[in-house]
Amino acid sequence: MVPVQYYLLLSAGLFCVGLFGILTRRNALVFLMSVEIMLTAANINFVAFSFQHGNLTGQVFSLFTIALAAAEVAVGIGIVLVLYRNFRGVDVTEAATMRW
């Protein structure tokens, strides 16, 4: 049986990788992938603590988080497409305002 601390270390590592990606990259697609990595880290925590306490609450909450991530990707891809159409690239530092 794998101890819960291993899952927490994995989750902390994934969260740090996602945070590093958000803070250092300027590409909008990398932003989206980094946010997804951070949400995955949160899901690992939910499932690990749910397993430790012997109930399904964390797993159910993890399913809601996955649904939220899917909605976030749909909105994010729309924003990326508008960025690309208006500025001919997905560099977020070029866009100061989103206008028609």
TrEMBL record:
GO biological process: ATP synthesis coupled electron transport
Record-given protein name: NADH-quinone oxidoreductase subunit NuoK
A GO CC term attached to the entry: NADH dehydrogenase complex
UniProt KW Oxidoreductase keyword: yes
NCBIfam families the UniProt entry points to: PRK05715.1-2 (NF004320), PRK05715.1-3 (NF004321), PRK05715.1-5 (NF004323)
Keyword Oxidoreductase: yes
Name of a matching Pfam family: Oxidored_q2
Native source organism of the sequence: Halococcus dombrowskii
The EC number(s) this enzyme carries: 1.6.5.11
Transmembrane intervals: 6-23, 30-51, 63-84
Location(s) in or outside the cell: Membrane
InterPro entries: NADH_UbQ_OxRdtase_chain4L/K, NUOK/Mnh_C1-like
